[in-house]
Write a structure and sequence with these properties.
heterodimer, A: mainly alpha, MetI-like fold, 2 domains, 14 helices, globular, B: D-Maltodextrin-Binding Protein, domain 2, D-Maltodextrin-Binding Protein, domain 2, 45% helix, membrane (chain A), MetI-like (chain A), ABC_transporter_permease (chain A), MetI-like_sf (chain A)
Chain lengths: 355, 420
């Protein structure tokens, strides 16, 4: 059992100690505390003693049901339609505030679909959580591939021996070193619906045909606007990682490829890409984790609005823990996020394993 | 070694000498205004005057930036390190009193008889905090605009009705001179929403919570009156009378001054700044939507921590600080509404006939405190989201039902926020 880790390696342990201590104090301990809090009714401020509530916080968050609403009918039994010819349905509160159906009390509509005279309504006791989960997944699914691809493209561009190439490297890397809060504030002006830079530019390019869009005020564009800005902000960081990967590929391989007369695409496909394998795994996992943790942009730019179109899990965890003083609820979200990220990272590791 | 002994001896002698000569008790005080030079200067002046005026107590000040103030107090309370004297935002006080951070002021309530009701922090029948000033909100308008649009000038006795108010907004929009009829400050997504917009809901006859029992929002936040408020509120945005939640903060800051908006629903703290730029600005009382004109009340107030070992000393300081001359000092420097009529007379702005005297009248006549309950800190967040969602086009009834459920669930989670 004696390995180099345990025998005669005191200096090594001494060097590792500060790091291990910090990780223990600020990551591992809070993690276990968080799991504990999520099983209790812990408040931020309260004179009441904390109680163990089991999985109540999770039940409250995940509770979901589908109910049916029958179209309103007039005296003759004919379906009533409104001015636009749409079938009219009774209000949801006829079910959620009905003493006969106490199990639906406190639930709200997430979305619905109508078939004939019946509306199927998906209701959840915590609609904001589901919207946040969905939005977070969209962010990850878009940001991970797009940001990785753009970063690789930029890395290939600046991995050339040209005069003044460091200037481009600096420019691409610049957004990374600027505080995300400052970047978010600036982009709020760029996206402004009244006279923002983006609207003005689009209007100029289209010779005035473009109708100004309130990018952050419109539920259909807000999340896309934040995703675009996030990709732009962090792409430089991943570009540098790709670049370091590119520079580990031995030049002799490129020379050999050139002698064999390979095309540019063939060189990339059979020399560069296989050489970047480990870098690709790293970049993908890092981007995925960063995308799941999206918070500052939301907090500065939209605060989850309009109409919950930019709610994300981390923003909700903070909002609940500190805003609503519900540490238990915030912790439960964090634990769920942890499980999701863990599972996805493991799947990524498995898919990209050495075969 | 010898040198060290001598030094130590000298130090001990010196300390001993000091305490023997003065027998001063040290008091610590926290204040939220770090970074505001004018505010800091007045607070320091009061403390200096107090320390010089007597020899029993010596107050020392620590200031925090407003954004991190509440967090610092919470952290200090958990660590058992609260100062003797601290200031707090009025509506947060019940939460802190309930949590056991504060003790009632050992000063009879009669002492503050002349103070505006909004400056007195009374929870559970006990006075926990007292403010040197109050704040008020008014409808900013230009005299010239009013005349051009042919609008009646509303007064405290005869404020605009809902119809008159809506007529004014529509007339402003129809004139085509403004981007929007009124700026409500939708960009300021914070306590401003509850402070500024909750009074509209109350004027409609609704509310955030049952003010008798404080145990449920059912029928109050989602009743008939509240739904009427929600429909009206949404119509302001669908009719494009008000810039929506995506309003750019800079436009909110200067929009009225630049003439982009005909009216502005704004606080007295912006009045001096606006008067300097807009010569014919006037401050009109809140419209009456059916149940009286209402505006929010209660600003920052002083209190004593539960852990203070010298509450009588802290009370001495609070009595000293709430003298008229200091109320007047704060008002003159920051444009705040002095807590007493006599202090108001000592100021340029709030004396009878002064340019801001109208705010003193508004505060005295229309001010209604936000719900005085420990649960308010959460209820306020729920209201902020509901008001934003309705403005963004969410279904009014469903949103208010959801907000009601959220508030009721929070009250239940906290065992009814009962005092212990």
């Amino acid at each position: 059992m004696r390995s180099s880790l345990t025998s005669a390696n005191r200096a090594g342990w001494a060097f590792a100690l500060p790091g291990i201590g910090l990780i223990l104090a600020f990551i591992i301990t809070p993690f276990f505390l968080g799991v504990g809090f999520s099983l209790s009714n812990q408040r931020l401020i309260s004179p009441n003693p904390t109680r163990f509530v089991g999985l109540e916080n999770y039940r409250q968050m995940l509770d979901i049901a589908v109910v049916k609403l029958q179209a309103k009918t007039d005296a003759a039994g004919k379906v009533i339609t409104n001015a636009e010819g749409e079938t009219e349905f009774p209000r949801l509160r006829a079910i959620t505030r009905n003493p006969d159906t106490p199990q639906y009390r406190g639930m709200q509509e997430w979305f619905r679909w109508v078939s004939g005279d019946t509306a199927h309504v998906v209701i959840a006791s915590d609609v904001v959580f589901w919207k946040a989960l969905l939005n977070t997944c969209i962010v990850v699914l878009v940001v991970a591939p797009v940001q990785a691809a753009i970063a690789l493209g930029l890395a290939l561009l600046i991995n050339q021996k040209l005069r003044g190439i460091t200037i481009f490297r600096t420019i691409y890397f610049m957004p990374v070193v600027v505080s995300i809060v400052v970047v978010s504030l600036l982009w709020r002006f760029i996206y402004s619906g009244q006279n923002g830079l983006l609207n003005n530019m689009l209007s100029l390019i289209s010779f005035g045909h473009f109708q100004p869009v309130d990018w952050l005020g419109n539920p259909h564009t807000a999340l896309g606007a934040i995703i675009t800005m996030s990709i732009w902000q962090a792409v430089g960081f991943h570009m540098v990682i790709w670049l370091s990967g590119l520079q580990t590929i031995p030049p002799t391989l490129y020379e050999a490829a050139a002698i064999e007369g390979s095309s540019k695409w063939q060189t990339f496909r059979y020399v560069t890409w296989p050489g970047l394998r480990h870098t690709a795994v790293l970049v993908l996992i890092v981007i995925t984790m960063q995308a799941f943790a999206i918070f500052a942009q939301i907090d500065v730019m939209t605060k989850g609005g309009p109409l919950d179109s930019t709610q994300t899990l981390v923003f909700q965890a903070v909002q609940r823990g500190y805003g609503m003083q519900n540490i238990a609820g915030g912790s439960a979200i964090s634990v769920i996020l942890f499980v999701i990220v863990l599972v996805i990272s493991m799947i990524q590791r498995w898919l990209t394993r050495e075969r | 070694m010898k040198l060290l002994n001598v030094t130590a001896g000298a130090v001990i002698a010196a300390t001993g000498f000091c305490s023997a000569a003065f027998a001063t008790t040290d008091l610590t005080m926290w204040y939220h205004g770090a970074g505001n030079k004018v505010e800091g200067k007045i607070v320091n002046q009061i403390i200096d005057d107090f320390n010089k005026s007597q020899s029993d107590y010596k107050v020392s000040l620590q200031s925090f930036p407003q954004n991190s103030y509440n967090g610092s107090v919470t952290a200090a309370a958990l660590a058992g390190k609260l100062p003797d004297i601290l200031d707090m935002d009025g509506p947060v006080m019940p939460n802190w009193a309930w949590s056991g951070y504060l003790q009632p002021l050992p000063i009879p309530q009669d002492h503050f008889k002349a103070f505006l009701p909004g400056t007195k922090g009374i929870y559970d029948g006990k006075l926990y905090s007292i403010g040197l000033w109050d704040a008020a909100v008014a409808l900013y308008a230009r005299k010239s605009t009013m005349k051009e649009l042919g609008l009646r000038t509303p007064t405290l006795d005869k404020p605009w009705t809902k119809d008159e108010f809506m007529h004014a907004l529509k007339a402003a929009k129809a004139s085509g001179k403004f981007d929007y009829a009124i700026d409500l400050g939708m960009s300021d997504k914070s306590e401003w929403y509850s402070y500024a917009f909750l009074p509209f809901l109350q004027s409609f006859g609704g509310g955030l919570i049952n003010r008798e029992t404080y145990d449920s929002a059912e029928g109050v936040l989602n009743g008939k009156d509240a739904i009427a408020w929600g429909n009206w509120w949404q119509s302001l945005f669908t009719d494009k009378l008000v810039p929506g939640t995506s309003q750019d903060p800079a436009a909110h800051e200067t929009g009225f001054i630049d003439g982009k908006y005909a009216f502005s629903w704004n606080g007295n703290w912006n009045a001096v700044k606006t008067m300097a730029k807009v010569k014919d600005v006037e401050f009109l009382p809140a419209p009456d939507f059916g149940h009286g004109s209402k505006i929010g009340a209660a600003s920052w107030q002083f209190g004593i921590s539960a852990s203070s070992k010298h509450p009588e000393g802290a009370a001495e300081f609070i009595k000293f600080a709430t003298q008229d001359k200091y109320l007047a000092d704060f008002s003159e420097a920051l444009g705040l509404i002095p807590a007493t009529k006599s202090a108001a007379q000592m100021t340029q702005m709030y004396a009878d006939g002064g340019p801001l005297a109208v705010f003193y009248g508004l505060s005295a006549a229309q001010a209604e405190k936000r719900p005085v309950t420990p649960g308010y800190v959460v209820e306020s967040k729920v209201f902020q989201k509901a008001a934003a969602d309705i403005a963004d086009g969410a279904d009014v009834t469903d949103t208010l039902d959801g907000a009601t459920d959220q508030i009721d669930a929070d009250i239940k989670r906290n065992d009814g926020y009962k005092t212990h």
